[in-house]
Design brief:
This protein has a 3-stranded antiparallel beta sheet with strand order 3-5-4. It contains 12 helices and 5 strands. The protein is elongated, with a radius of gyration of 22 Å. The longest helix has 36 residues. It is mostly helical and 289 residues long. It folds into 2 domains: 189 residues, Fic-like fold, CATH 1.10.3290; 72 residues, Winged helix-like DNA-binding domain superfamily/Winged helix DNA-binding domain (Arc Repressor Mutant, subunit A), CATH 1.10.10.
Length: 289
């Protein structure tokens, strides 16, 4: 494994985070990455009607690597006791005070191992990908979890699953780590480009509102933390009256900065900033779902 590739991927990731840090996002806090935190997210999944909190208790595969870096696959009955042990081992490596490998390589190995342990009946993929951002943030390499590899994995879904499986069956760890680092580099470069688009867009909005004595500029700033607004959300952030917020949202709608969705009595109105949504995810259209 080339150390230069590791360094290049990490440099891009850190540049990405600096560019994307347009300002603090209110009301958000991040707990350190840990197996307890991942279990907590599993509990939250269960509250949403998913199976995330239920540990796997059926027959599965336990994959081990021998000293020759060859994979040996053993079948075993996976119990809560075994899952707790392997998750504890995973967390000990996570919090190793004297790591011998570069940070992103460790992140790649931790992600692989979590997906292999597969502790929940549902939601392991999402939790494993969420862990990547939380881990890098927890290690002080990002001011917030701003690096998302999900789209890279999704676009290369077959290769992603193949790489994970080939580690289990053939011990191809180097190939998996290289794939992971390529993803970090690609997504970091993409994030830099999007951050520049968002920064330009914010300056354009501010220029269009220059000279206004209203608080419309403050609402525009909120759009870059949450591009879908409601009256209650704006009131909670800015302490304004309901009529005042509604009037400013109408003005921003007329300026085509936001798009109003929801009409009629008793319907909750929302305002979408399509420009910000498009910059964040060009693949997603602007239709209301």
């Amino acid at each position: 494994m080339s150390r230069a590739l590791c360094d290049e991927a990490e440099l891009l990731a850190r540049r990405s985070c600096r560019r994307r840090q347009l300002g603090p996002i209110e009301g958000q806090s991040w707990r350190p990455a840990s197996s307890r935190g991942l279990r907590r997210h599993g509990d939250l999944q269960a509250q949403d009607g998913q199976n995330g909190t239920h540990l796997v208790e059926t027959q599965g595969w336990l994959v081990m690597l021998n000293e020759a870096n060859e994979a040996r696959r053993d079948t075993c009955e996976i119990s809560n006791l075994l899952l707790s042990k392997v998750l504890d081992d995973w967390e000990r490596y996570l919090h190793d005070d004297d790591p011998r490998l570069p940070l992103l390589v460790r992140c790649a190995l931790l992600h692989y191992q979590f997906e292999t342990i597969h502790p929940f009946l549902d939601g392991n993929g999402g939790l494993g990908r969420l862990f990547i951002a939380l881990f890098l943030r927890d290690q002080g390499r990002m001011p917030a979890p701003l690096l998302y590899l999900s789209s890279y994995f999704e676009q290369r879904k077959t290769e992603y699953y193949d790489r994970l499986q080939l580690v289990r069956e053939r011990g191809e760890i180097t190939e998996w780590v290289r794939f992971f680092l390529d993803g970090v580099a690609v997504q970091s470069a993409d994030a830099i480009e999007r951050a520049e688009q968002l920064a330009d867009l914010r300056e354009d909005y501010r220029a269009r509102l220059a000279g206004s004595r209203s608080r419309a500029g403050e609402i525009v700033d909120l759009l870059f933390a949450n591009p879908i607004l409601t009256v209650s959300y704006v009131r909670s952030r800015l302490g304004m009256s309901q009529p005042g917020v509604a009037n400013l949202m109408r003005s921003l709608t007329q300026m085509e900065i936001v798009r109003e969705v929801g009409e009629g009595a008793g319907v909750r109105r929302r305002w979408f900033c399509d420009d910000v949504l498009q910059a964040l995810d060009p693949q997603a259209g602007t239709d209301d779902h």
